[in-house]
Design brief:
Strand 1 (161-163) and strand 2 (167-171) form a beta hairpin. The protein has helices spanning 2-21, 23-44, 52-65, 72-75, 81-98, 105-131, 133-157, 172-192, 199-226, 242-246, 249-258; strands at residues 161-163, 167-171. It is built from 11 helices and 2 strands, in the order H-H-H-H-H-H-H-E-E-H-H-H-H. By secondary structure, it is mainly α. Helices cover 74% and strands 3% of the residues.
């Protein structure tokens, strides 16, 4: 527990500091997190990030992450993000032939889905920060509150298992406790921040995001169970990998935009 707390304090300090700073340092941080998350995913599948397929996957992820305000870089060469992803698909399919099917069709599918999974989440991480500090801190704090509320409520009164086949330690009581904690934390954002929404609407949005944040957690748990790994990585002692820390937020950041809250 001591190691977990120390890691959380250091990691939180770095994340909050660079989030406050914004600009290029923040974008670099998002790219770093996304690259590590991609490494963790490929490692689960026993794919090498520094192989031809891994480099194609990583490069495509970096293009996917390119913030909206920098899209003119692609426009200058008259190509879109979608076209680059499609080129990556063709190259990965060609690689299955070159490797005589050691790199398989399933590996191609896994690589492309990993780009979409990681890329969508961290792309909207950057775009949420661009929308303003209130929005990015709202997303971070409601998910941290969801995680903490679910953990402590589950420990104190959890009896009914939520989804034992995927995550045996999660409980229905913890699930509800996480939502309640997130709503409580959202109230100051509705009252005092520059977010252009009412407290009531924000509470309903928070419930929705807290639910899907916990689903995002379960999605990564299902992925790890499928590939029989305990944690996605070891970069954060006591917490696991980058995916372990951002699994909920990879669902929440896109939904903030899809719900037109920003």
């Amino acid at each position: 527990m001591k190691q977990r707390i120390i890691t959380a304090v250091i990691f939180g300090a770095i994340l909050i500091s660079l989030t406050l700073m914004g600009g290029i340092p923040f974008v670099i941080l998002a790219y770093l997190f996304a690259s590590i998350a991609m490494y963790e995913l490929l490692k689960m599948r026993k794919l090498n990030l520094f192989s031809f397929s891994g480099i194609i996957t990583l490069f495509t992820l970096w293009i996917f992450l390119l913030p909206t305000k920098y899209l003119d870089l692609l426009e200058r060469i008259q190509i879109t993000k979608i076209e680059i992803i499609l080129i990556a698909v063709l190259l990965l399919f060609a690689y299955t032939v070159l490797t005589k099917n050691r790199f398989t069709y399933d590996d191609v599918a896994f690589s492309i889905m990993s780009i979409l999974y990681v890329g969508m989440g961290f792309y909207y991480f950057i775009e949420t920060r661009e929308a303003g500090l209130s929005y990015i801190f709202y997303s971070l704090f409601i998910i941290w509150a969801t995680d903490s509320g679910a953990y402590f409520t589950g420990r104190a009164m959890g009896k009914r298992k939520l989804w034992p086949d995927i995550s045996p330690n999660k409980t229905v009581e913890g699930f509800i406790g996480g939502i309640v904690s997130a709503v409580i934390v959202s109230i100051p954002f509705g009252l005092f921040s520059q977010m252009d929404t009412s407290v009531i609407l924000l509470a309903f949005v928070t419930i929705f995001l807290s639910v899907f944040g916990q689903i995002g957690d379960l999605v990564e748990s299902a992925l790890k169970r499928h590939y029989q790994v305990k944690d996605s990585g070891t970069i954060l002692p006591g917490h696991g990998g980058i995916l372990d820390r951002f699994d909920s937020l990879l669902f929440v950041w896109p939904l903030l935009h899809f719900l037109h809250l920003l």
